[in-house]
Amino acid sequence: MNKIATYFHFDQYHTTFRREIVAGFTTFISMAYILFVNPQVLGESGMNSGAVFTATALASALGCILMGVYAKYPIATAPALGINAFFTYSVVIGMKIPWQTALAGVFVAALIFMVITIFKLREMIIDAIPQDLKRAIAAGIGLFIAFVGLHGGGLIVANKSTVVGLGSFNVGTTWLTIFGLIVTAILMVKHVPGGVFIGMVATALLGLVTGLIPMPSHIISTAPSLAPTFMVGVKHIGSINTIQLWIVVLTFLLVTFFDTAGTLVGLAEQAGFLVDNKMPRVGKALMSDSTAMLVGSVMGTSPVGAYVESSAGIAVGGRTGLTAVVTGICFLLGMFFSPLLGVVTTQVTAPALIIVGVLMAQSMQNINWKDLAIAIPAFLIIIGMPLTYSISDGIAFGFIMYPITMIAAKRGKEVSPIMYALFFIFIAFLWILNVG
């Protein structure tokens, strides 16, 4: 045990085994939904849902364990939401591209990802982002996950007249979210250790007692076979032979790149890991998620990336790689306890996401709001993420505006060449996604 504590630098981060284990489990509970959502989304493309379930669990576990043991960060990885929807609804259904070819696109994007990580291009880009914009990314992610929680919990719903509106209080599960939010808020205000996790447990128990959450019929089940999706993408690389398909590959690459980069920066800001505006061991963190993305594409799932729900584990005190390792182990066990995971509904995780959003939004206080050349792009990042429901789109808004406002302020020389390059890349990125 002492060797583990020494390896993960417990003394440096003032943490304990209990805290790291609770943090890892909290992170897993917050993102366990991906085990069910990813097979559902990719299943609509024609992929075998059972195989996707197993691929999701294994790819997530690998990424988490690598992130913990190699990069030593409490950051979990899993197939990213949003990009899986792009895979199914835009590429397969919209463009009528076979899922086998789309999976080959993910594999090629993962290979490119690995190459640019090895040459430290991703690391250079992250280091080039100004401190205030990194803080804006952290705050924007906070608003984004809070919005995800409010919507998932039923407190915020779609409204044709006003775009979004208040949910119905005639729905029992909405009251479950309200209960969890109140309990979690009280625990956090009173500084109760593990308040976020305790709040989720209390919410789940109330849901089971009231019947709002179905009691699982059984606890243990065998993991479905990987055979229907394993190596399919690799075998269909030759199908990527048109400009349209290479645009698909580029989109997989760009969305995953900036979603992961933004998430890593935001979580590092939240946990206090940034040193002189740089994230220590960022190269190892990027290599961990690149490897998980590559292996995940071989197994049969959409791109893997760092998860914002890691902020839930960080919020309860997770500061070392042991947190991510525990999360990875939970994903492995989750393959065999899938019926029990059904208890963790969106109403259970919603209060945690909302409270964590509050914690991450605190990064806004350190942004120089009096400097409009910085404040305007920072604000666009913060507001863009929840309103577009996309971390990468929010980053695009701010990164496009940043060189413009700096040049207008006659401070164009302060903008690094990389940020100027990103200006053009993001314009092309938005064009490809929305026009091309």
UniProtKB/TrEMBL annotation:
UniProt keyword list: Cell membrane, Membrane, Transmembrane, Transmembrane helix, Transport
Family note: Belongs to the nucleobase:cation symporter-2 (NCS2) (TC 2.A.40) family. Azg-like subfamily.
Molecular function (Gene Ontology), one example: purine nucleobase transmembrane transporter activity
Protein's recorded name: Transport protein
PANTHER family: GUANINE_HYPOXANTHINE PERMEASE PBUG (PTHR43337:SF11), XANTHINE/URACIL PERMEASE C887.17-RELATED (PTHR43337)
Classification of source organism: Bacteria, Bacillati, Bacillota, Bacilli, Lactobacillales
Subcellular location: Cell membrane
Residues that span the membrane, as ranges: 21-38, 50-71, 78-97, 103-121, 133-157, 169-189, 196-223, 243-265, 286-308, 314-333, 340-360, 372-402, 414-433
Domain of life of the source: Bacteria
Annotated source species: Lactobacillus selangorensis
Membrane topology according to the record: Multi-pass membrane protein
GO CC aspect terms: plasma membrane
